[in-house]
Structure formats: C-alpha cells, structure tokens
C-alpha cells in the first residue's frame, strides 16, 4: 500500500434511520488533491466531520500520519497537522481579519498560555499570519473587522486560516462556494500550487474546479462510495453521470 | 478610542483625588464609600475576565466573593481566638496578616472556580448562567445552615487585619491598598486582552469550532479564564470582608452575584474600565438616591433602565461609542 | 415511616411540581421564544397576586380576582415589552438582563408604594376550601387538587399553541432568525408583544393561584423566580414539556428530600443534629439535582440548544 | 409596467458606505440578473430592497414607496427573498419552516414538495441537520410559500450539486414562465444568460452597466467581472 | 445636642418591620428637640448596615445607635459599634451571642433576648399539658435558637422536630408530617411571609391541632393578611396592645392618632427604646459614658410592658404572656390569655462576664 497521509477504514455513521456513512474507506496520498463529490446530502460533510473529529463514527477508523486518531479530539488532530475549512464560515466576526489568522498561527505554535505579552508583537506569529494573508490576497484587508467582509472574502479568509497551521493535510469543505468566477479561478490556481505543500481532501460542487484540480475523485451517494478514480474515469462513469453530474458536464 | 482613554484617565484621577479631598476635609465616610466602590470594581473586574473576554456569564461569582470573604473571616477568627484552624498531621494557625489572607483567598476561590468550571463548562449560554447560579445557591444554603462559622449570623472580626508598614485602620491607608490592587488587576486585564491567551479566549467565545480546528481546546481556555476571574473576585471578597470587618452568607447570595454582573454591564462589558465605571456609578446612586424617599429603589431602577436604553455598551459605551475597543 | 405518609408526600411533591410548572411556563415561553432572560417574571407574578388580592378584597369574588390578575399581568407585560424590551432585541442579552433587573426594582417598590409595606389578604374561595378524601385514606386539600388541574390544563394549552398553531411556529422561527422571519412578511414585533403578554399573564395567573395559600407580599416573586429558572433549565429551555417534567422533578426532589434526608441522617447522628444537617442538604437538593442534570445533559432534559 | 425601481440608492454599514448609487428597474414578469465581483454590494442592495437595512434614494415597489415601510410590510407587498447563506430556521422542521412563511395563494406546501421532492422526504427533519443543498431548496420553497410577485434569489445555487443546480435553474425557468418577476444573483454567467432577460452589473457599490442580456458581451464581462 | 442614629429596614420585603420600628421610636421621641435623629435604610443587607454604622459613627458623630431588626445585621454592626465606644440600644434583634459571651457594657437589648418568646411558648405548652408537640423552624441560627428556647421550658417528648428551608413558601410536606406524627400540638417559628403561608396552608389542611408560635407571626401588621386562619392561635409575647398598663394605653392611642393604624410589637419596642433613651438623657450626657451607662441600666422609664428592668447582661427582666388571636369587629388582633413566664431574664446571663 502506498503510504497515505490520511485514510478512513469502513466508517459507519447513522442518524436514526438515515445512514450518512456506510463503510467509507478512502485514502489521501502525498502530494495529491483528492476530491469528494456527490449529491447534496450524500454525506460529504458528515465524512469530513468524522475525519476532523467533530463527529464520532459509529464504527470504523480514521488514520492520520500512520496513527489511529479515531479516539482523538478535534484539537489533537489539528495539532498533528490536520487543517480544515468549514462549509459555513467559522470566523470570529468581532475580530479583525488579522486576528483570525493570528489565531491559526497561535494554534499551530501550541503556546496559547501567555498572558501578559502582546500577541500582535509576536514576530513569529505575525510572519506566519501575514504570509497566509498575502497568499490568499487578503493582505489589504488585514485591519478590517471580519464582519465587514463580504461573503466571498470570508471564504478566502477560511483558507488563509488553514494555511497558518503548518498543515500536513488539508480538508476543505466547499472552499469555492460563494466565490465569484474570478475568485474561483484564482483559488483554483492557488490550490493547484498548494498541493505540493500538503495533500488536499477537497469537497466541492464546482465541477470546473474539481476537474481542473483533482488527481483522484471519489463519488459518494447516499453514504456509499460508488466510484473512485481519475477525472477521466469519473467523467465517463455512467453511474456518476446519472447520480450527480447530469448531462451538463 | 481616544475618548475612552481620556475617560479612563479621568476615572482613575477621580479615584485618587476624591478620597484625597476627603482626607483633607475629614470626611471618612466618603473614603469608605470610595473603598466600597473600588472593592466592588475589583470584584467586577474579576468577573469581566470571564464575562467580557470569555463570554462566560457567571451568575455565581458571589461564590468566589464569599469564599474570599470567608477565607479572611476564618483565618482571622482563628487568630483572634488563638485556636488552630487545622490540627492534625500538621497544624495551620489562623492569621491576621493581609498578604497571607489574600493569598489564601485567591487560592481557595481559584480552586473553587476550577471545580465549578470543570463541571459547568460542559454547558453554555443560558444553561451556564443557571448552573453557576445553582452552585452559588448551594454555597449560600450551606453557609447559612453550617453553624461552625456563625451560619446566617455571620462572623465578626473586630479589628481590621494588618499589612506590614501600614495602619490599615486608617481609612485612607486601607483605601490605598484596595486601589493598588484595582490598578494592578486592570493593568493585568489590559495586558491579558491583547495577549495570545486573550486572543484564543476571545475566539473560544465567538467560534469554539474554529478554535478546536486550529488545535486549541476552548474549554480549557475558558476554564483558565474562570479560575483567574474567580481568584480576582475572591481577593475582592477578602478586602470587602476586611472593609466591614464582618463576613456573612449574604456575600454568597444570588443578589450579590447579580450586583457584580450589574456593575459590569452598566459600566460596559469587556471595557477595561467598565467595572470601575459601573461600581462607582452604582455606589454613588445607592448613596444619593437612598436619601430621596423610602421608595428610592424605584429611582435606582429608572436610572439603570435609562442607562440600558440610551447607552449601548453601558456607561462607557454611552460616552465613548460602541464597539469592542481592542484590535 | 408509614406508606400513607410517603404517598401523601409524593402527592405533595407532584402538586408543588405542578405549581412550579405554572410559574415556569410563562418564563420558559418568553425565555425560549424571545431568548430573553426575564428577571422581572417574578415581579409579574407578584403583580398578579396583588391584583387578585385587591379585587378579591373589593368584590369578594375569586373568579373576578383571577381575571383581574390575568389582565393586570398581561397589561403590565405588554407595557414592559412595548416600552423597554422592544428596544433591546438587537442588543446583547446582558443588556436585557440589566433592564429586567431594573424592572424588578421598579415593580417591587412601585407595588409597595401603591399597596403599602404590609402583606395582603387573599383566601381560598369557599367552594374550594377544606379537604377531600382520596382513595387509600389520604386526606388532601381540595384547593391543591384544583391547582394540579389548573397546571395540567395550562400545560396542554401551551403545548398545543407552541407545536400546533401557526402562531407558535412563527414565534419559534423568530427565535432562530428574527430578521429573516420579518423579511418573509411576519410582523414579529406584534408577535413578541403578544408572547410577552401571554407569558406575563401566565405569571400573573400563577401568582393569583398561589396567593391564597401563600403570603401576598413584596418580594414574593424572587425566590419563585429562581426556582422557576431551575425548573426550565432542568427541562430544557423553551420546552413546555421540559418545564412540566422539570417542575415535577424539582417538586418531588424538594419534598422528598425534606422528608427523607433528615431520616437518613438520624441513622448516624442524634435527632436534633440530623434535623439540621438533613435540612441543610435538603435545601441544596434541587440545586444538586440541577447541576447533575446539566452535567449529564448540558442542554437540559428536552432542550435542543444553548 | 415597472414593478421595482431603485434610483441612486446609497447605504452604509455604520461608518462604512457600501452602496454609492445603484439604479435598477424590474418590470412585472421580467427576470433581471445582478452581477459583480465579491464584495461589490449585491447582497447589500438586496438587503435594502427587503428593508433589512436603511437606505437613501428612491425605492419603489408596485407604485409604493418602500423606504418608510418595515421589513414585514415590504414582504407583504409581494417580495419573496431567498437570502444569501440560506438562513433556514434551524430549530424548526422542514414542514414548519414552510408553514412559518405561508401566505394564501397558489403556492402551498404540497406544491413546494412537488417542486422539490427531497423536501417531502425530509418533512419532519430539523432544518439544522439538512444537507447544504437541502437547506437551499428549503429556502427557495419558503420564499415561494409567501406567494410573492417578485422573487429575489441571492446565490441560490451556491453549494449545490450539478444535478440539483440544473433542477433549480429549471425551477427558475418555470417560475418565470408563470410570470414571476425575478432578481437573480449568481456566479454562473452561463446559466444567467439562459434564465434572465436583462442584467445589471455592480462595481464598488455603483451600477456600472445595465442592459439586455444579449448586449452583455465578452468584453463587458471581462472588464467588470474579470472573466 | 445628642445625635442618635437609627439603622433599619425601610425598603424591600422586610420594610414593614423597620417602618414600625422607626414610627414607634419617632413617636416616643416626639418633643425632644435637643436630640437629632438620623434614620437610614439598611436594605436588609449586613454590609450596607455596617457601612451606615461606620458613616454614622465617623461622619455624623452619633452617640447612640439603634433600630436594627434582624439578628444577622445586628451581629454585623453591634460588636464593632460598641468596640468604638458607641451605645447600641436594640429595638428588636438580640441574638444569643450578644447576651452571653459577647455581651458588652454599651449594648442594651430593650426588646427581649431572642429566645424569650419561644421559651414562653414552651412553658405554656407544658402548662397546658401537651405531651407531644411538633416543633418547626427554619434552618439558620435564629431558628435553631428558637427550638432550643422552646425545649428549654418544655422537657417532654416531641412528636417531631423539623427544620425548614429559610424562605420556604410551601409547607404541604411539613403539614403531612405533622398529620402523620401523632402530635397533639404544633409550635412553629417562621418569620415574615413564611408564617403567613404556613398558617394559611395549615388551616386548609384539616389537621386542626392547637398551634403555638412567637408573636412575630401574629403581629398586628401580619394578622390581616392571614385572616381567619390565625383565629384562636396562641402566641408568646412580652407585649400586647391590650396590656393594662397606663403607658401602654397612651402609646396605643397616640400611635393610632399619629399613623392611623394599630401599633405592632416593633413599634412598641421602638417606643420603649425612645423612652429609655430619654430617661437616661435626663440624667446624664452620653459623653460621660459611665454615667450614661448607669442611667440606662437603671431603666427608669414607664415601659409599655409595665415592669421592666435590666439583668446584668443588660437584657430585660420582664413577664412574658400568651396571647390569643381574636377578631375585633373587622380587625384581627390579640388578647392576653395567660402569663407564661414571670420575671424572665435570659438563658445566657451567666455566660456574660458583666456582673
Ligand atoms: N445531526 C444530524 N441529524 C440527522 N441527520 C443529519 C445530521 N447531520 C446530517 N444529517 C443528514 O445526513 C445527510 C448527509 O449530510 P451531509 O451534510 O454530510 O451532506 P453533504 O454531502 O455534505 O451535502 P451538501 O453537499 O449539500 O453539503 C443529509 O441528508 C443530512 O440531512
Ligand atoms: N455587516 C457589514 N458591516 C460592514 N461592512 C459590510 C457588512 N457586510 C458587507 N459589508 C461590506 O459591504 C460591501 C458589499 O458587501 P456585499 O455583501 O453586499 O457584497 P456582495 O456583492 O454580495 O459580495 P459576495 O459576492 O461576496 O456575496 C463589502 O465590501 C463588504 O466589505
Ligand atoms: Mg456539506
Ligand atoms: Mg453577497
């Protein structure tokens, strides 16, 4: 088995009668972008929640960097280098853009127990934060309150925070959602470069982006994996066309 | 921002000038009132750490205030009666020394905050308010019916405790001690707010999911905030007990918790000087309105109502405008 | 301890639970619906009791007194909403807490100013006076049985309103997203005034019903307020079912705790000492219960959210 | 006949001005696309129309001055909103979400469920636990329940699977065929071209271009939308 | 000129007691133009009471303090006030601690010692031949003292001894216990609204055993709120409006004329305190502490309670009566039916070092 950075083994999760994950096993390899696609309600976000630790699977395992992390809380996985973006932005609205990114850097530094020093004067944290803002093109907005950002700008900030975490793997839940055409194009190019830093597990409905980026695609329908393969395989798969892509793609 | 800075400076100056004037004019009662206000401000500044920075609306801060008070009462009463506090494997004597009492007050109330926090931080929002209230009520009823230290009658310490080099019975000297503590805590608060911990705590208040996702545990951050908060309020409790030379379960009552919260809210939540403005205002209102009529609390109610309705973010917000002042 | 005593105490626990529910119902409605921590709820309870006592004193009719209590409390509630609370929806919850705290002072001292400092007289109506014999030889006060009935009726009515009527659904929607429900064409301000009036009327009703067996006096609302908060928090905020279950749990815990804890301590210490220690723990029992429930279920028994 | 007409609309968030002069007209039965990069003021314009924030300038719907009306009165005139970010009532079930908005007319819960069968299947589920796409359907259904004369869709296809997106575009086409006026904000120019009669482009809080869809040349799109 | 500071409860739930204390005292002080009286509201909070006391002592330079209604407030104020050399005359609260070990030459209880009225009830229960009383009080020091006071003079078996919660409003559980206990009588000490609630609920329960209590729950102001439920109940008191003493008749009619209502116990204590003070001021000035103390101690005034003198611990020696609640026209009031204790001092007098 080629060594995978992140993998799940036979994950099962049910909400009452609804089976949101049924034996999901996927792997994220070094240097790749692995896209998860599937109809709405297929269980993509549920899968991500289990990978990141905010939801506990009924059975099955999650392995990250060769270690079984199924029992670890979210923050421990994050400290190991698992960075995520949220489908609905989770940002501190009352803080500035800079503060939101600084938080990411602070989390990564693992030293939050400093009570009397100025966080904004910590050169290490600042550098990480500024670099992340620069990469996402938000450097000019650093001093704005996050509440003042437009929807699209907030989506970019989500990515910026993940960048500060010195990640070993990214898990992104619909980072393109809400970005305009221009923004999507920009982000597509950016993710393309990002994969060399750490592999990306990408949930996305923007097929243009997915087809442009993904090394491999897994298709989830009703909690089950119905296909995994390269872009060409998936495009050609009649099952996938029927369940998800429709005739447009 | 600048305006707030000016207001803070004015408040601080007032806290120095007015008692100074009172010494000159021989108005010991004014000093007493100022001491009361400063101690309440200290208690509220403690709460402001949990409430303003951490978003933890604790309706049980009287527990810490009271524990601080009882730490003083218990230690001093044992010293007064020459009976050991604990006589077992080793012996603990009572004491009339303020520094030791302060340490004991801060440590015991911090411990209590840790215990309550571990249990309460599983909840949030209104549930957190109520579970802290529940712990407050438990402590209150326990203190009322526990006979060892006077029960509801409380505990009188006839003479104020001592501080090396000072005559604490002199009102202005005791006031100076209290003011020094307040300044120290406000300085700490100002630093804390901009510190790495402050940032993490503020984020834990707004977006706990995000904090987890970057590898921090929001509950532990909040627990530490609560412990700091409880310790400061406990310290204020010890000073308050010393001011009155008396401690009773009324320091543990939910009304007391309510008042501490009120100080913070009327002053301005999360404002550096919010607790100070709130406590000073409240004590002044209580004093001035008290003479108007038997029904003076109606006026107090109306004044408080006016502050809420017309001032966003409390008195400081009313004067200096809205917004969280950091960044 | 005889089985009859135990049975009677369980009945007492249920009855006091239902009574607590009555007080908590309006609170949970307002709290759950508008997200408002209404500390002045106890004052509205007091307003109800005073209105009832005044009208009963003047007319001698208990039914008129109940109507007066409902009307007075509802009017007071609507006025409070229109004049004060309405301006605070967009604000921090803490501002609302402070405002309702101020209202307590105004209501309490205002009532004292109107009615004097002395407790008022309000008695059980003759047609509910005395006791009835229940199966099993339990002699029980008729009025208390009536209270149980009234409480259960209120519970059913509230549940129906909340879950089954469009009004209830819109109110709950407004609780999630006030701006959005308005953008869909619902006059949420009017709804809120209505909810506040209903909640206040329930508090007033509770005050009037409890008045005949308790002391109608200034400050009567505050201890009740705390208990009512305990009840709705145990049950889960906003849940009428939760308030009922919470009320019963608190009523039973309190009543049985007062009976059993001193007995328990008698096993280890002398009678007088056991009475003090036992009752000390009994007075903490409901708070211990509440803390326990919240530690086990952080959003109460039937609550969905924080 | 003009249904909605905005002239020189300006608006601010506190001290920051977000709109500097937006002009927009929508005739009865007409579908208009509003376009612009991120943060250019599209949502802000929508919020002004729905009276969710104060605005200066003229704001007329069906001959009535909106600018003095509270939000719910504006909605009752016949403006249905599918807001950015869905904003379903989290603690209500799907069915209750629909009931909460209902006003008499041709649209009722049954019809909405026929439009989006998925909602029928999830009728008793709490909205908070719906998938993103399901929530989006619910938000559209909820707006339809108010039986509006004009529907505003702010990023209504965001986060939807291609198949569902196609369904929604189909639904939009149906609604338009029924004579419903529409203001559509979306990032897919291709779909907007198919669905809308006219377009308005916003840039930094101003309407900088308006005209019939076919006049929206690649060059215009390039300058204003960065395509 | 002499300054007297009165600290009492004038706002909130307990205000009626403080208002009566104040009114009785001011009535007694009428015409004393050379005495300046300062009255302040303690809000029933110990810390507020302490601070008012400090203010009166430090800024207003009062000579004498008085007026506190509640034991816990008295415990907060009295020790430090007397330690600063001020005189304190208690119009009501007189906790055990201040009668025994904590007695002080500058502290005089004009009212009673807290246990007195409960002792009277105990003595009366014994003389009535009750064999199994059920006794009940809230769980706090004054409550514990009250049951001990009762038991001090009632040495028989008890059917039950129950401590309720302070501030409790529902007594169904206790009433059921009474019913089941086989008691032949009930003694309770439940201050304020608790007593009203208990009596109403007890009357509706059909238990019907004879009830005994201290006067507080049957005081003039409270009785009207209890109504018929109180009729026939016996209560221990050292004062009653029908006490046949000339000073008392004057007091009752003067109080009614001045305030338009019947006086209560607290008013009577306030009035007596005023007269004690006047009698002492006639003989000595407070600045001469020893002379003033001696003047106070001689208790040379016409008490509305008839005979009145101070024991060595400076608590009264007085008769304690049993009253019964009756209805006079529309008004519920008390009449004396027995004398329970004659020349009663207090249980703690021997613990006091003053001889
Ligand atoms: N807490 C929950 N309780 C009940 N059902 C749930 C819960 N969370 C998710 N579901 C259901 O599980 C299914 C999968 O949801 P999930 O959010 O994982 O979908 P998704 O694939 O991310 O969809 P989308 O692309 O629309 O975001 C949905 O039908 C959803 O309604
Ligand atoms: N609550 C707010 N407070 C302050 N400024 C805001 C607020 N909301 C939006 N803004 C600012 O107003 C401008 C317009 O925002 P708006 O949300 O209308 O953009 P948009 O065109 O809808 O963008 P998007 O396509 O990203 O949704 C943005 O620059 C944004 O920074
Ligand atoms: Mg999803
Ligand atoms: Mg937008």
From TrEMBL, chain A:
Pfam families associated with the record: ABC_tran (PF00005), BCA_ABC_TP_C (PF12399)
Keywords: ATP-binding, Nucleotide-binding, Transport
Gene3D superfamilies the record matches: P-loop containing nucleotide triphosphate hydrolases (3.40.50.300)
GO-annotated cellular components: plasma membrane
Domain of life: Bacteria
GO MF term (any one): ATP hydrolysis activity
SUPFAM superfamilies, alphabetized: P-loop containing nucleoside triphosphate hydrolases
Record domain ABC transporter: where: 6-247
Name the record gives this protein: Branched-chain amino acid transport system ATP-binding protein
PANTHER family (alphabetical): ABC TRANSPORTER ATP-BINDING PROTEIN, CONSERVED COMPONENT OF ABC TRANSPORTER FOR NATURAL AMINO ACIDS-RELATED
Species annotation: Salipiger aestuarii
Presence of keyword DNA damage: no
The UniProt record lists the keyword Mitochondrion: no
InterPro entries named in the record: AAA+_ATPase, ABC_AA/LPS_Transport, ABC_transporter-like_ATP-bd, BCA_ABC_TP_C, P-loop_NTPase
From TrEMBL, chain B:
A GO MF term: branched-chain amino acid transmembrane transporter activity
Protein topology in the membrane: Multi-pass membrane protein
Entry keywords, A to Z: Cell membrane, Membrane, Transmembrane, Transmembrane helix
Keyword Lipid biosynthesis: no
InterPro entries assigned to the protein according to its UniProt record, in alphabetical order: ABC_transp_permease, LivM-like
One Pfam match: BPD_transp_2
One GO cellular component, as annotated: plasma membrane
Transit peptide listed as a keyword: no
TM region positions: 35-56, 63-80, 100-119, 126-149, 172-190, 221-240, 260-283, 295-319
Broad class of the protein's primary localization: membrane
Residues spanning the signal sequence: none
Places the protein is found: Cell membrane
Top-level taxon in the UniProt lineage: Bacteria
PANTHER family, per the entry: ABC TRANSPORTER ATP-BINDING PROTEIN, HIGH-AFFINITY BRANCHED-CHAIN AMINO ACID TRANSPORT SYSTEM PERMEASE
Protein name (Swiss-Prot/TrEMBL): Branched-chain amino acid transport system permease protein
Organism: Salipiger aestuarii
TrEMBL record, chain C:
Keywords for the protein's UniProt record, in alphabetical order: Amino-acid transport, Cell membrane, Membrane, Transmembrane, Transmembrane helix, Transport
Residue stretches spanning the membrane: 20-41, 61-85, 97-121, 141-161, 191-213, 225-252, 273-296
Coiled-coil parts of chain: none
Highest rank taxon of the organism: Bacteria
One term of GO molecular function: transmembrane transporter activity
One GO cellular component, as annotated: plasma membrane
UniProt KW Transport keyword: yes
Membrane topology term: Multi-pass membrane protein
Protein name: Amino acid/amide ABC transporter membrane protein 1 (HAAT family)
Species the sequence originates in: Salipiger aestuarii
TrEMBL record, chain D:
UniProt domain ABC transporter: residue ranges: 4-227
UniProt keyword annotation of Nucleotide-binding present: yes
Keywords for this protein: Amino-acid transport, ATP-binding, Nucleotide-binding, Transport
Pfam families, A to Z: ABC_tran
PROSITE patterns noted in UniProt: ABC_TRANSPORTER_1, ABC_TRANSPORTER_2
Classification via InterPro entries: AAA+_ATPase, ABC_transporter-like_ATP-bd, ABC_transporter-like_CS, BCAA_Transport_ATP-bd_LivF, P-loop_NTPase
GO molecular function, one term: ATP hydrolysis activity
Domain of life: Bacteria
GO biological-process terms attached to the record: L-amino acid transport
Family: Belongs to the ABC transporter superfamily.
The protein's name in its UniProt record: Branched-chain amino acid transport system ATP-binding protein
